[in-house]
From TrEMBL:
Pfam families: 2OG-FeII_Oxy, DIOX_N. It comes from Sphagnum jensenii. Residues 223-329 form the Fe2OG dioxygenase domain. Belongs to the iron/ascorbate-dependent oxidoreductase family. Keywords: Iron, Metal-binding, Oxidoreductase. This is Fe2OG dioxygenase domain-containing protein.
Amino acid sequence: MGLETEFPSEFQTPAAPPTVYVDEKEQPWDVKQGGELKVPESFVWPDAMQPKVAFNEYVDVPLIDLAPCHTGDEIGIQKVVKEVDAACREWGAFQVINHGIPDDVVLRAREAMKRVFHLPPEIKLKAQRDYIKNYNGFGAGSMLCPSKQWSEAFQFLMTDEAAPAVIDDYGERLFGDDKEFFCNAIKEYLIGNDKVRLLIWDLVIKGLKVKNDSFFKKYLSGSVNKGFRSNYYPPCPDPSKVVGLVVHTDSTLGLVQLGDVGGYQLMKDGVWMSVNPRKGENTLCINIGDYIEVMSNNQYKSVIHRVVTNTEEERISIDCVAQPPWDFPLSTCPELIDEDHPQIYKPIIGKEYQAVKLEGHVCRPQKFFTVAGDAHLELRHAAGNVFSSTSDPSVVAARA
Ligand SMILES: [Fe+2]
């Protein structure tokens, strides 16, 4: 087995430029014009895609206390299942407390990533993203976006077997002999996330009232690829002109550590809203993702989201995901298809899905694989993507 999980050959041409920032001597957020920090012209987005809702115009998404799941309180668990079910249907996202990852593990992971993002560019270059092999390392906030975003990201995708070596390798490149803090913090955090992911997955199965749970469980068994991704959003002199992270949906169930600073926005009923990060509380934001939307026959929704910036505080997030190998078939649970609930999506394989996403269709790309749309390939090209002119209603809504 190789050291890291390699992308299939179809993904060897990156949609994004090779690097955005780490090869520049002066990072864009430090650029001064006339003695003042200014947004470089190349980072200004078209007006239609500029954020109109401030980072701190907060709404509370459903907050679910997972404590009963750890104590075995059956009545409490049933309440949690109902809350998760309602949140997945209405929002496609929710926050959880008492998820089981200890405060000190979260704090160490956040401190580790803070140290990483404050390394000088010449050190970050040693861990520059490998766009040919696997997309691991430092690079643009979203690798699916050809335009410049006010962020940078550090990420790796790996199997459990490869994880210790991958993390040690990046620790060595970034911190040399001082790598221990970084390596231990990330390894501990990943272990904590694995437990929460399985717990949420179980709640999803219960919420959907699936009797034969093997359909869902096979997605997280076998040679699963685990993703660790941390994004850094520096303060921005003019947040109204830039995009922190481009609008998108997540492919698979995501466990997002939002930190204490706002900026994470989701779209509900066509309206953008900033998620309250619940400062000081040890919360995780759970995104259901595209795969579960397909598996649930569209009962659970994949939430459209993005990140905006602010003028004062830097923001760091950490997102952990897991997904089956690229050749794994993505399909709808047979139990959730009947006369009243006809199958919405055609079965596809993971790499076909990812290929559409890499074309720039980063919001719910499964809509191009509907059973009703026989000419789905033509549809997918006609609809355009979030980066080009389109009349596709959901994309237009995503831009609003
Ligand atoms: Fe996301």
